[in-house]
Write a structure and sequence with these properties.
Length: 147
């Protein structure tokens, strides 16, 4: 163990004698946490977007409760004489909050199929009438909140 050398920086080398150095260390730690998720390539989004059924808190809670019963052996449902199972209620509330947070705070990437956007133009260029039709050739991408 004595000849093992750490491959990454350790705090043993950090100078904690001044407030400035301590603030630099804290700010560096928060920068690591605040990095956004990596972007998904548009072709992968185009392939998988139609296969997803959507998310509901009821289905999420049902899956979690089912896994509690099958994998962990935790009894769920109204099995106690004193009323509803508080563990099942906790799972339902957690599921509702997760879905609500996804719907109100998540950021999504969007990709539109090539050729899905069609545009047409018509008008006059001096005495000559002009008409044209175009379609998108490349996927259109963007990001924003979930609806």
């Amino acid at each position: 163990m004595a000849d093992c050398k750490p491959k990454e920086k350790s705090f043993e080398d950090a100078d904690l004698t001044s407030i400035t150095n301590i603030l630099k260390i804290l700010l560096a730690a928060f920068k690591l946490i605040g990095k956004p998720a990596r972007k998904i390539p548009p072709p992968l989004l185009l392939l998988g977007k139609n296969l997803r059924p959507g998310m509901s808190s009821r289905n999420l809670a049902a899956r979690i409760i089912s896994r509690y019963e099958s994998d962990a052996g935790v009894p769920m449902g109204d099995i106690f004489a004193d009323g509803p199972n508080t563990e099942a209620l906790k799972v339902r509330i957690m599921s509702e909050e997760m879905v609500k947070m996804l719907q109100t705070e998540a950021i999504s990437q969007v990709s539109i199929d090539p050729g899905a956007i069609k545009s047409s133009v018509s008008g006059f260029a001096g005495p000559v009438p002009v008409a044209g039709v175009a379609t998108s050739v490349l996927p259109v991408t963007g990001s924003g909140g979930l609806v």
